[in-house]
């Protein structure tokens, strides 16, 4: 009996020490007598068979766990395994990057501390749904490097209901939503351009006639009050004509000649021109232009107008403010270039950011803007397969960012 117990103990030890079924079977062969006439042989064979089944099951589970870990790590979707109290047990690189952990793991931190659930009641509802075996999904805002990301979130239990672990997955929809907004804005601009261009052509002729008549009145009357009224009419007619020309311009960009453009030269040209104005004496102008910036191909006049619009908008934003700052930077990106125009003005609210590129939308006084500059800029950038958006600047104001593809890529 003592020998049988020793053999059984050796079999159990072999089962615990081995990493594979084949390894256990090799070790078990030394403990089970080959001669089955030995009364203990059948007992040891049965024990060996049961332990082999256990080892095989453990090997299967171990491999499944390794596959699951590899799938979680390789998934492009930010994913984490969390405990019932909302603490991260395991996370992949995509999740760590999104929540701002970088190369550090988010393991051990709670979802609340990572800024994923500011509403504790919402978190509790999600956890309870997951623990009961129900799928929970909802929308979350995630702050990543001071950039708010819009995400869809899914939380499910791992295994059977009442499981002790949950799988938390995020789908970052920020870029998708931005593309949708840009497509809507592009469609609005195209529609507005077609309508407005037709109206502008019809309006130009009567405007010209009105201006001629007003000039005749202004020069032909001896009554100063009448002359002043005629000059006021001329001023307003000229303003209406400028609007009409801008409307016609909305639909004529595609006909512009494409040229090889050095964006840094355009920026410096505009800055040299604007810096001659008196109010620039009160502005701290900062530039950081990448000297190795690749060239781009596009309509030079239109691209110059885009940069001009962004810089003059920054001027308007910082006027009559203390410590006025405007910063213009360029840099290389993967496949193109990036232009940033930042200011220290009052900034643009999240609500207004959704409409800032709409035609005729403006926050300026009527005599200072028609609400076409940014919509035209958006159209020019879109035609170049680029992107333009606004965010908060490092100086507390607005920062407009333009990404454009370059001729030489990165």
Description:
The protein is built from eleven helices and twelve strands. The chain has four domains: 71 residues; 98 residues, Beta-Lactamase (2-Layer Sandwich), CATH 3.30.450.20; 70 residues; 155 residues, Heat Shock Protein 90. Strand 11 and strand 12 form a beta hairpin. The chain has a five-stranded antiparallel beta sheet. It has a five-stranded mixed beta sheet with strand order 7-9-10-12-11. It has a two-stranded antiparallel ribbon with strand order 6-8. By secondary structure, it is of the alpha+beta class. Helix content is 48%, strand content 20%.
Helix content bin: 40-55%
What is the element string, with H for helices and E for strands?
Answer: HHHEEHHEEEHHEHEEHEEHHEE
Fold-level CATH name of the largest domain:
Heat Shock Protein 90
The tally of beta strands, per DSSP, is 12
Biggest β-sheet description: 5 strands, antiparallel
> Which residues sit in consecutive blocks of at least 5 with pLDDT less than 50?
none
Spatial order of the strands in the main sheet?
A: 2-1-5-4-3
End-to-end CA span = 77 Å
Total number of helices? 11
Mass-distribution shape: elongated
Q: Helix- and strand-based class?
A: alpha+beta
The CATH homologous superfamily of the largest domain is termed Histidine kinase-like ATPase, C-terminal domain
CATH class of the largest domain: Alpha Beta
